[in-house]
Design brief:
Elements lengths: L1 E8 L6 E4 L3 E2 L8 E2 L9 E9 L2 E8 L8
Parallel strand pairs: 1-6
Antiparallel strand pairs: 1-2, 1-3, 4-5, 5-6
């Protein structure tokens, strides 16, 4: 199966969904955390999964991590 991540981008001027290259393999389930090679060091969560035949679109948003500086 092939799946394509669609990533939510919070831009300064306007937010948008960005389409990334397709991956081979089973798509993540809605609510699961994942990483993307395009954004090393960042975690994402699958907020929606649309399956259609042998492919799927996975809508993902970046997980904001709170950092406490002592």
């Amino acid at each position: 199966m092939r799946w394509k991540p669609i990533v939510w981008n919070r831009a300064d001027h306007y937010a948008q969904w960005l389409s990334y290259p397709s991956r081979v393999g089973e798509p993540p389930q809605q609510g699961s955390a994942l990483t993307l090679v395009e954004h090393p060091g960042h975690m994402f969560v699958a907020v929606g999964v649309e399956r259609g035949g042998e492919s799927a679109m996975v809508w993902v948003k970046r997980i904001e991590v709170e950092r406490n500086i002592d």
